[in-house]
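new request in #modeling-help
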Amino acid sequence: MRVSRLLLVTLRDDPAEAEIPSHKLLLRGGYIRRISSGIYAYLPLLWRVLQKISTIVRQEMDATGALETLLPQLQPADLWERSGRWAGYTAGEGIMFHLTDRQGRELGLGPTHEEVITALAADLLRSYRQLPVNLYQIQTKFRDEIRPRFGLMRGREFIMKDAYSFHADEDCLRQTYAAMDGAYRRIFQRCGLRAVAVEADSGAIGGSASQEFMVTAEAGEDLILTSADGRYAANQERAVSRPSVALPLAAAPRAGGVGDRLSTPGQTTIEQLCSAHGFDPSQLVKVLLLLARFADGQFQPLLISLRGDQQLNDVKLANAVSARLSGAHGALLSIDPLTADLVRSERLPLDLSEIPFGYLGPDLADQTLAPDPSHRSDTAGVAPPTTPAVQLTRSFLRLSDATAAELEAFVCGANAADHHRVGASWAGLGLQPESLDLRAAQSGDRCLHDPDQCLQAARGIEVGHIFQLGRKYSEAMEARFTNESGVDEPLWMGCYGIGVSRLAQAAVEQHHDADGICWPVAIAPFAVIVVIANTQEAIQVELAESLYAELTAAGLDVLLDDRTERAGVKFKDADLIGIPWRVVVGRGAAAAQVELVRRAGREKLELAASDVRATLEAEIGREIAGATLVA
Amino acid sequence: MRVSRLLLVTLRDDPAEAEIPSHKLLLRGGYIRRISSGIYAYLPLLWRVLQKISTIVRQEMDATGALETLLPQLQPADLWERSGRWAGYTAGEGIMFHLTDRQGRELGLGPTHEEVITALAADLLRSYRQLPVNLYQIQTKFRDEIRPRFGLMRGREFIMKDAYSFHADEDCLRQTYAAMDGAYRRIFQRCGLRAVAVEADSGAIGGSASQEFMVTAEAGEDLILTSADGRYAANQERAVSRPSVALPLAAAPRAGGVGDRLSTPGQTTIEQLCSAHGFDPSQLVKVLLLLARFADGQFQPLLISLRGDQQLNDVKLANAVSARLSGAHGALLSIDPLTADLVRSERLPLDLSEIPFGYLGPDLADQTLAPDPSHRSDTAGVAPPTTPAVQLTRSFLRLSDATAAELEAFVCGANAADHHRVGASWAGLGLQPESLDLRAAQSGDRCLHDPDQCLQAARGIEVGHIFQLGRKYSEAMEARFTNESGVDEPLWMGCYGIGVSRLAQAAVEQHHDADGICWPVAIAPFAVIVVIANTQEAIQVELAESLYAELTAAGLDVLLDDRTERAGVKFKDADLIGIPWRVVVGRGAAAAQVELVRRAGREKLELAASDVRATLEAEIGREIAGATLVA
């Protein structure tokens, strides 16, 4: 390909819309252009990268026996209603674009394909003899992100490889899950990426086990916690650790007491309370008042207890709340602090004026959830006809993190303004808290598997996620098969995703320098660029053309920079777009000498034009072979 | 690939949802499954076909220097508002799915990409030095079809290859258009399709010239008219012809007369009138009362005159009306008969009770478009705030087909119930009709290029369409470049589409028999199927496995039917899914003899297993080479 025919438009300056290096470089290098918020045109250079990544993905998926297919992007609402996910994905913070067609039927734009594939499996799979089967596709997906950003990292339209496997038993599911884990490691390695496999939360997809693959990079949106011995790695959403040991309260409490009342005017934060009275945060129980909203319109107030030095992990809380209430009320749509603003915006029949914010104790009475007297009694349940009826539970769901539940005596709010209690105990408050893991593990925490190991934080870009789904979807959608004993049962399922377009940008994030991108050769749009230093010199043009023809004939992806620009401009562009190898045909052309430059390390080599092909084949072959070795 | 791992589920009976052979066979053969109206899952067998077609399309597009890219499917409304197509594509019969995102912004799901690519061109293209450039993509597209049907033929989600070229002048556009014409002919031929290039209407896409490529097949939705000498072929929407010569009226009319009044009670059709009075239909002028609706809310009554033996061509009429009024009123949304029902449903302030339907003459007075007295005068223009204000023109746009306009004397309605006029003339009626082509050419009509040639009708499936767009989009969206003289001007554009998924089904429509599909080898999911007649026989299994390995190693796409089914079931399935070559390993295996069967012609050959590879390579090579020769 000749640069003059490539529609190469590079930008000298960083575009204002981009924050992180990879986003800036993809825009500056003419790889992408923004069409709308979170929506990009993939220009020819990026398309070549995406095709190379897709080829590697296909090869590794096919090698495991997976079958490529293509499922619809437009998905009928009734399939999602059968799995119970329509409301959660379209209402509230739901991220599924949805529309009504000319027949008045609702359709969603697929962010994922569990519903479609499970319906298909119910149609196609009848017998254990057809199992296992693993179907995959490489396809554009859609998410109506709240904050689209960072270019292809968090877009509203993006390319995914997603696969769905079906099994006769859980053991077989685990085998395919392991095969996918292996395939994913090979894929990322062949793409030239340093990726870490971490334990992950299964989130809205669900299922029993899941693992993410993170490309480590400063600009990553995910926080991952790893042990130095490499034996533990998890997404922060999921990470577990040993909490620090709590300091005992100096004043020995009476056994089973409610604590001594302490006047604490204006001391509504942990910091204020500790600094005024010399408490350690680990001696406190802090209480959060939240409100959970469900797909069926139900609102459930939550009262969450944590040790004063611990932070709430939102994902662990959402999982705990879902586990208790989603069976009755459908998908958990959101959890927000229960504030007067929320009461107003959701038009809840609730008066919070009796609640002593800043002074809450775990034993806050349900009666404080008093109806708003200004609200007519019939307004609860009245809502626009298209949304579910509003229902409010008037008793708290009380959940305690283990760090709080294990305290024998603690300081907590007195449920009265300007007062706390010192030396309170669970029994004294009349509570028997369940011991849950609701806290966020943090960098510096000691590891569960070895207390001598501490968690270290790193940032990562999620490029893959594999799930053991179990029977969640097959049960909901009645995708059943006849097992070897002739008995009908739901299929076992797994699902496996790779963010193909995100992976391309993650590669840039991991492989760039101040001058531009340094693509791993396996996914570079072109492996080699032959630059004619001065197109006025016939001898340079002639030698460059002959090298271009020779390298192309050898099967290498070669660019020829035949533009009439100055050599400096061409070198800058070659650096910016990140072609791994540059062959400069300049003054040495008369002596059939050229310069070979490796983009990533800047190594330069003067060599005879006749040696270029063999040198490049050897170097490129070495890099590809290195990346093909499985770690 | 082993059939046992292919997830092959074939159906014995024709599915009720399918009407035409190709749709039935794709469903029965396990190529597709319906997910929703006009929306299909592409199962692994079909995906292989689509990949093979895509590869041929890419090779031929790349050979012309076109660059592959990928544009967004979600397109912001404001781009379509800039081109003036948003209303036409979303309101009324508009076929664009559209939605509102969480920020309240409107987005459409791309049925085509002129807007996005023109916006991109405005950003990327500055100078004539960058031209010409031709960008293409292979991508899922969306149309909210009124009547989705025939499987992949008219779906709501489908795969297209679309390309858009940009030029410094019209001559260069014509060259690329010609290059695309050549590439398209090669693509269809390499795919093994008999396709005809026909003149076509440019429709909603616009532009000055366009050509469709039709796969001829009984089940085709398009009517095409061709001359036996092969020099003329056109879509019926666009076709032109010589009309038959009109019979002169027997009674010589007075020059410039209004005609003699004739009592014709109950004779409201051409047939009734001719049979009662012995007229020939070619002696009559029939008058159609229609109503055009525009994007800005304007309604325009139309009075269309045609010779009695001619039929109206809706597309020619729409083009004529658009040419006259779209400048003032935006896109033409629809043309419908002006009836009392329409007046009611559109809530038009109009009383049709004075209009003598069945007795209309071309001189029907504008005054007959009287306001409805029951309508309050202020209701015109009152409409829901989201739709444009309703405006009604109270004078006719009068258009006449040339066949009517050329009549010196004719029979027409008297604009009074139960009466016609005999011997009327245009001058006598006070009209000077413009001579337009509004009539439908028909099979049997004489050709313009040679009156000895008659048009013949055939049915076709549109699989490609190429357009010279000119500057329609670049002017509307200000995509400009600096020409060689340093002057700024709008880009010249062309666009070029191929229905990739439709092409796959069209191939089935053209290549099938009573037992199933007969794929052309170039796009068959597999070229060869090796069938083990009896998997209980170790010698058969062994020979089949060794042939499978040998053929696969030779680079052929081979299926091995290793299922424990009876041989008859396997043969039926192989016929149904249409694998071009079948190798049967049966009783002859002991003597290393196998049977080779060509699917399309049923030719059978007994041969030594050791000769299979060479024979297949030669046969397949011959078929591929034959299809690669350009017609």
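bot summary: Residues 376-387 of chain A have pLDDT under 50 and may be disordered.
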